[in-house]
Design goal:
single chain, alpha+beta, Beta-lactamase, 2 domains, six-stranded mixed β-sheet, five-stranded antiparallel β-sheet, 12 helices, 34% helix, elongated
Length: 474
């Protein structure tokens, strides 16, 4: 026993030494200022409304200690003057705490926003739906005793089968819905059904004005419908992927509602329920009894999911829910108008939208509007998942250091810049927050929509992020 005790003491001591040594080694790998990172604090009042920021440009607001307009302009000049962002560039940088303008170039002009549009969709969705909102997929009784209807509720995170346990958040699945439905049917003495599927929650076309014809083929989006699984992502064999894989650029499903219904039918059969014939379109009766249902993760988690990987299907579904919540038509045009209306009531102007994801070349947003959206997210606790969902430079999402157009290597921005990316063929945008060298928290947006080289523009935006994070700039 004494020998065993001595061995345990020695092993514990070695483990402690190893842990301390590993900690020291890791700390040396990280940028010095990463240890000083302070998360954005939520203020009790709005911080970055349009009026204080714009009036600051005329001198109505006194300049706080720290970064000056002259200092920041000088620091940005080499990057902005390189020509990498082309001839059409807009930018705004403000102190997030005071709204003081620190740099402005064409900040009130409209630019193609690409996926920075998702900031607008996120703010509007959280405002009208609430952070705890969930979207429900149901199965109800059909018109005949042995018929049932799968009803799409616009859950953009619904999966067919079980995703990997490492995926977060874990979505609702048709596998679970089929299991609950089969139990309910057996309790009724029913073991054979005809299956209908209802995708009537939305109206209008499934593809937006201004989208490229090959957006579905190139894996950017699927047809927008309230009933789909895995955002239409497919395996090489054409089955639902059942994994959150933003790197899957295979062609997506061209009929996601039918594919979801077919997956559901296969799960029912596996649970001992005979499904006669193939699934067919149907409309659920108003008074139909609910047999089973599954619900999505809360909206706050869906927002973070969408922003981190720039998920277009999630964004378009959220835009439709904004329309439904405000009494507008749940179509592309109705959803865009509903978003603009919600944001105007929040004081945000400078948006002209055709969709909710930013895939449309018809969208226009000003840098000032993007900075206003960042300010709202920072100042209102109900909107905080917009900030927590932003990719972190060098670490996560579309700003990670692997295969990112926006990553320009290690520098002051590493771990201290959180921002939403956006890019189309000749468009690049970045909007978010930067923790500057002197401790100031900055809100910024930079937009360019007449590029000749996307990789060069990506490196320029990485350079801007590093300038903002490394700036003392007095």
């Amino acid at each position: 026993m004494r020998r065993l005790t001595r061995l345990m003491v020695v092993a514990t001591a070695l483990l402690c030494v190893f842990t301390i040594g590993a900690g020291v080694a890791v700390s040396r790998l990280l940028p010095e200022r990463l240890a000083l990172w302070r998360p954005a604090r939520i203020a009790a009042v709005p911080l970055a409304g349009s009026s204080p920021a714009l009036s600051a440009a005329t001198g109505a607001v006194s300049t706080p200690p720290g970064i000056t307009m002259t200092g920041l302009s000088g620091a940005l000049a080499p990057v902005l003057g390189s020509g990498a962002l082309g001839p059409s560039v807009g930018m705004l940088v403000t102190d997030l705490t005071t709204g003081q303008v620190l740099y402005s170039q064409n900040s009130s002009a409209g630019f193609t926003p690409a996926s920075t549009t998702k900031l607008a969709t996120s703010i509007a969705a959280l405002q009208v739906l609430g952070a705890g909102a969930r979207f429900t997929t149901t199965v109800v009784t059909g018109a005949s005793p042995h018929s049932i209807v799968l009803v799409g509720g616009g859950d953009p995170t619904l999966a067919a089968g079980r995703p990997p346990a490492s995926d977060y958040p874990q979505p609702a699945t048709l596998l679970d819905l089929a299991g609950a439905t089969a139990r309910a049917l057996r309790e009724r003495g029913t073991r054979s059904v005809q299956l209908g599927y209802d995708a009537s929650l939305y109206t209008g076309p499934g593809l937006a004005p201004g989208w490229d014809a090959d957006d579905v083929v190139t894996g950017n989006v699927t047809v927008i419908t309230p009933l789909e699984v895995d955002q239409g992502r497919l395996t090489p064999s054409g089955q639902p992927e059942d994994a959150d894989d933003p790197g899957n650029f295979r062609p997506r499903s061209t009929d996601p509602a039918l594919q979801a219904a077919q997956s559901f039918a296969s799960f029912l059969r596996a649970d001992g329920i005979t499904v006669t014939g193939g699934p067919s379109p149907a409309t659920a009766r108003r008074q139909a009894a609910t047999l089973a249902s599954v619900s999505s993760p809360p909206l706050s988690q869906i927002i973070e999911w969408m922003l981190e990987e720039s998920n277009n299907v999630i964004a378009e579904n959220l835009a439709r829910h904004i329309a439904l919540a405000t009494g507008a038509q749940p179509s592309f045009s109705g959803a865009a108008a509903a978003e603009e209306s919600v944001l105007r009531r929040l004081g945000v102007t400078g948006l002209q939208l055709s969709d909710g994801s930013g895939l449309s070349h018809n969208d226009l947003i000003t840098p000032a509007a993007l900075v206003q959206l960042i300010g709202l997210a920072a100042s209102r606790p109900a909107l905080r998942s917009v900030l927590t969902g932003l990719p972190v430079y060098g670490f996560s999402g579309t700003l990670a250091n692997t295969d990112s157009t926006f990553y320009g290597g290690a520098g002051p921005a590493l771990g201290t810049v959180r921002a939403k990316t956006g890019n189309l063929e000749t468009v690049i945008d970045l909007a978010g927050v930067a923790y500057a060298k002197d401790g100031q928290l900055l809100a910024f947006a930079v937009m360019a929509d007449r590029l000749t080289s996307l990789p060069a523009a990506g490196q320029a935006l990485a350079g801007i992020a590093n300038v903002l994070a490394g700036c003392g700039c007095r």
